Amino acid sequence: MKDEQRLIEDVLMGKHESFEPLLRPYRQGMLNMAYRMTGNLEEAKEVCQEAVFKVFRYLKTFKKGKSFKSWLYRVVMNSAYDRLRQEARHSNTAGASDTSFPDETHNPEKRYLELEIKEKIRASFRLLTPKEKSVFLLRDGEGMSIRETSEVLGCSSLSVRTHLSRARAKIRMEFARVYRLDRGK
User: Fold this and answer.
1) What is the residue-wise DSSP string for 52-71?
2) Nearest 5°: CA angle at 124, between 120 and 127?
3) CA 33 to chain centre
4) How many domains does the chain have?
């Protein structure tokens, strides 16, 4: 945290070489969040690039003593929302991409099952409101605490718990429905 604050101060003082080390610990998490929000790896990369520009441009507005990680994830999520709104305006057809991150496992059956579950979760996102999706991705996808999630989203802990509960319930119901269909019941 102290090192992070020093890097922020260095960037603000014009030492731009400190910007990369500041973001390095969060790069994979940023890409994961953007990918989960957009469902497309190329879109996710563009969202991250936009977010990095915004972080650099608005770093001076970051409040000392607050969580940089929470602020950074908020910028990534807002960039993803902007991208999704932009896409919706330009196209009425929004399809899910079949692009996915490579899995390091060497067990093809396990990999297939993991990909199938991930695809079913991603497909169930269509049932979630944007707030439910955001809360679910931050808590269950990124492993953030209730407090961190509430900071990123700018809402109360109670709101996070409520939206998380609703999101999980909707996903469980969708899994049950799909499972019944798959089994022919």
Assistant:
1) HHHHHHHGGGSPTTS-HHHH
2) 170
3) 2
4) 2
Residue 18 carries which DSSP code? G
Cα distances (Å, whole numbers) of residue 43 to 8, 18, 37? 27, 26, 10
Same domain, 110 and 80: no
Say what the pTM is. 0.66
CA geometry: angle 69, 126, 128, nearest 5 deg = 60
Q: Alpha-carbon distance 29 to 18, whole Å? A: 19
Confidence of residue 19 (pLDDT cuts 50, 70, 90): very high
Q: For residue 175, give both structure tokens.
A: 């899994």
Q: Is 34 exposed, middle or buried (0-12, 13-18, 19+ CB in 10 A)?
A: buried
The packing angle between helices 108-124 and 157-183, to 10°, is: 120
Q: Any idea what DSSP says for residue 93? A: -
Reported as a single tens digit per residue, the pLDDT across 103-162 is: 444 567 777 777 777 777 777 888 888 889 889 989 988 888 999 999 888 899 999 999
CATH number at residue 41: 1.10.1740.10
